[in-house]
Amino acid sequence: MSLVVDIRHAFGGFALDVSFEAPAGITALFGRSGSGKTSVVNAVAGLLRPREGRIVVEGETVFDAGARMSLPPHRRRLGYVFQDARLFPHLSLRQNLTYGLRFAPRGASGPSPEEVAELLGLTALLDRRPGALSGGEKQRVAIGRALLSRPRMLLMDEPLAALDAARKAEILPYLERLRDRTGLPILYVSHAVPEVARLATTVVVLDHGKVVRAGPAERVLSDPDMVRQIGVREAGAVLPAVVTRHHADGLSELELSGGRVFLPAFDLAPGERTRVRILAHDVILSREAPVGLSALNILPATVIALREGSGPGVMVQMQCGEDRLLARITRRSADALALAPGVGVHAVIKSVSVARIDIGGG
Ligand SMILES: Nc1ncnc2c1ncn2[C@@H]1O[C@H](COP(=O)(O)OP(=O)(O)OP(=O)(O)O)[C@@H](O)[C@H]1O
């Protein structure tokens, strides 16, 4: 395990009681404002000393309340990226980046400043000062600086929260590259579902200081029991996919374990693996194989479970190949279709409803 957290703490009326294990990849700490995400990251960083528990990073115990042991932050070998980039305005990007090297332990190996600049698309900007950069570019420098301190793990607390939608979309592919190329474990705080769906390998959901669900991202995000945390409008399934073809009419074809789908053209090469998020409110269901319908994507599926909310909607979880799909339909439709666990359905997804941000890479 890259990280083991098992801590308890209290501030006034707020009790934090969090246990989880993070394997390699990006572990997203997801939850509403005030659920305790930053407190957990601060405990891992050594900025908050919990009343009880243990924290182990890459096999080394950095905190053990029972043994009265707590490594100071600079000895934990963690890179921290905040919401705001916190760059030195009077230094060039190259100098800002290499500043990170001062914190690298003697003899620690890792990528060179040039390799880090290449990874994060900063090579052409190295002689500039931060003042002339976009928010996304500044954040990439902050990530590069953290990487050059040769950490064992990166901690990122809402690193995209201060960016507008276009800058967010621009930086996501760099975070995917970081995840896929460096293998460095990352603890990533976010309350934004599209970001978590794109990046997370593992999702830990916090609510009122407690872990309510933890596991592989595809499983947690596609769980109808998570709708309360995720929100009905953001609820959806995340499915692994392989790019198969790009068609001349502006559509790209993806192979899912349960069939193929056509989506508006995107920029990944055939053969590339990615993931796609299909929102529950973009899926409609039919008992019969639909004919004469404009939708291009019709996937056979089997109902696993139905979850009713307080309104007129029902969340239907389905098995589709080896993956799970979610559909949000009305209770009236669910009754009319006599949906129940085990019933076979056809899930219909409009191609144009899947946004570019909901497809990995690019
Ligand atoms: N030093 C502190 N003293 C007192 N209360 C604190 C302290 N730090 C955090 N809290 C409280 O603990 C709770 C969890 O805060 P935390 O910042 O960890 O949540 P969060 O999920 O990161 O929220 P956000 O997304 O708004 O940053 C909140 O109720 C907060 O007010």
Automatic annotation (TrEMBL):
Q: Name one Pfam family in it.
A: ABC_tran
One GO term in the molecular function aspect is: molybdate ion transmembrane transporter activity
User: What Gene3D superfamilies is this protein classified in?
Assistant: 2.40.50.100, P-loop containing nucleotide triphosphate hydrolases
Instruction: Output a single Gene Ontology CC term carried by this record.
Output: membrane
By its UniProt entry, which InterPro entries does this protein fall under?
AAA+_ATPase, ABC_transporter-like_ATP-bd, ABC_transporter-like_CS, Mo/tungstate-bd_C_term_dom, ModC_ABC_ATP-bd, Molybdenum_import_ModC, Mop_domain, P-loop_NTPase
The Mop domain, residue ranges: 292-358
Q: Which UniProt keywords apply?
A: ATP-binding, Cell inner membrane, Cell membrane, Membrane, Molybdenum, Nucleotide-binding, Translocase, Transport
The record's annotation in SMART domains points to: AAA
Q: Where in this chain does the record put each ABC transporter domain?
A: 2-233
Q: NCBIfam families per the record?
A: modC_ABC
Q: From the Swiss-Prot or TrEMBL record, give the protein name.
A: Molybdenum import ATP-binding protein ModC
